[in-house]
């Protein structure tokens, strides 16, 4: 089995009710970084299940959801508030880079 990959999940949902449904679905497998941006570590089966779960909740003609794979040595810069809530890192080297 292929190892799990780190993913950046971003979405733009046109209708508030669908937005709330998508947010709850993504929160099941991801860590919120910004309002519509989440981080997740998913293997192939987990990514397929996540995509399927979200696909049932969106209107593909009006909404936009993207899964970006993150490399292990991703370089992340940030300004303002901490990107990841204090105490959250799951021991993951990719997620640790979101902390200043």
Key structural traits:
single chain, alpha+beta, Alpha-Beta Plaits, 100 residues
Question: Mind explaining what this structure looks like?
Answer:
This protein has helices at residues 16-27, 44-55, 93-96; strands at residues 5-12, 31-34, 37-42, 64-70. The chain is α+β, with helices and mostly antiparallel strands. It has one domain: Alpha-Beta Plaits, CATH 3.30.70.240. The chain has a four-stranded antiparallel β-sheet with strand order 2-3-1-4, with helices on one face. Strand 2 (31-34) and strand 3 (37-42) form a beta hairpin. It is globular, with a radius of gyration of 14 Å.
From the N-terminal CA to the C-terminal CA, the straight-line distance is 33 Å
- Supply the number of structural domains: 1
Low-confidence stretches: none
CATH class: Alpha Beta
Report the sheet-strand fraction.
25-35%
The total of beta strands comes to: 4
Largest sheet: 4 strands, antiparallel
Structural class: alpha+beta
How many H/I helices?
Answer: 3
Mean pLDDT: 85
């Amino acid at each position: 089995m292929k190892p799990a990959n780190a993913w950046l999940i971003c979405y733009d949902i046109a209708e508030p009710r669908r937005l709330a449904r998508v947010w709850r679905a993504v929160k099941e497998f991801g860590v919120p970084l910004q309002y519509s941006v989440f981080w997740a570590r998913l293997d192939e089966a987990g990514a397929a299940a996540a995509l399927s779960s979200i696909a049932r909740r969106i209107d593909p003609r009006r909404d936009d959801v993207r899964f970006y794979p993150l490399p292990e040595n991703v370089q992340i810069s940030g300004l303002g508030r901490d990107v990841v809530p204090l105490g959250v890192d799951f021991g993951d080297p990719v997620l640790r880079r979101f902390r200043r």
